[in-house]
Amino acid sequence: MLSIFSWFGYRELSHAESFRLIRQAGFEGILLWWDEIPDCPDYRQHPELARRAGLCVENIHTQFEHADCIWEDSAAGQAVYEYYLQCVDDCAAFEIPTMVLHPLRTHPTSPQPSQLGLERFKRIAERAEQRGVNVAVENMRGAQAIARGTWVLEQIGSPRLGFCYDSGHHHARHVPEADLFAQFGHRLTALHLHDNDGTDDQHLLPFDGTTDWSAQMRRIAATGYRGPTALEVEPEGYAGMPPEEFLARAYERAKRLDQLRNSV
Q1: What is the CATH number of the domain that holds 35?
Q2: Are strands 56-62 and 29-34 parallel, antiparallel or unpaired?
Q3: For a tag on the chain, would you pick the N or C end, based on fewer CB atoms within 10 A?
Q4: Which residues make Cβ contacts (< 8 Å) with residue 8, sequence separation at least 6?
Q5: What is the rounded average pLDDT of the residues 9-14?
Q6: Domains in the chain: how many in total?
Q7: pLDDT reported for residue 239
């Protein structure tokens, strides 16, 4: 199955229209943003809207603006923790198999790891086990952020706590010693595939940056991952391109990735 993130950058479109165009382009699956922000005040209606358009809801992406707080002994930290627990419950209620979360915001002043934060992640994993939901920890940019996600996965062996591989994050600030597939490929639960020139997280269409996609898809295939090939792309580098054309290009690139992955 080929999937794409529901928010692909065309703010003038309603969500119902976005879902229709995504399906029209050929995609069968969708990744949903799961938080109330100006662009998504009605986000709880999106699973039904997406399914009406003929799309399978692959996973939800949780908000990350306050992700750092989970490591803090504060009201904000408790609020983020409770939000993640609610997202687990929401996945079960809306029959969505997986939620993706950031273990860190990656600000220069991000807090140090704490036992409290780790205990919160353990309880989130326990809730996921109870609800039959997967929680996928996304790799972030830079050594500190990679290390934080790695530590969470190393410390918590829950079968419901997995790994979301974000190719753009890894390529933009590559840490050579961080062989994420070797460490956690057996726990790969979700993909965020997009491209950049190696300097920043640009969310380009695959093959428009400097990622070696042949090697990338071989590594993904070698993990045994059987889930969708999923894009997380945005149109900032394609000024003036109509959404239909952007989605058509995105679908063509997703098919090329899937062919590389399945040719191994």
Answers
A1: 3.20.20.150
A2: parallel
A3: C
A4: 18, 22, 233, 234, 235, 243, 246, 247, 250
A5: 89
A6: 1
A7: 87
pLDDT at 176 over 60: no
How many whole angstroms separate alpha carbon 220 and alpha carbon 163?
12
Here the tokens at position 113 are: 């790891």
Phi and psi, residue 155, nearest 5°: -85, -20
Please report, rounded to a whole number, the percentage of residues in the chain having pLDDT higher than 90: 80
Alpha carbon of residue 162 to chain centroid: 12
- Do residues 67 and 61 lie in contact, with contact meaning Cβ atoms separated by under 8 Å? no
What is the Cα–Cα distance from 112 to 71, expressed in whole angstroms?
7
Domain that holds residue 150: 2-262
Closest CA to 86 of 43, 55, 51, 54: 43
Task: Provide the greatest CA pair distance for the chain.
Answer: 50
Size (the chain), residues: 264
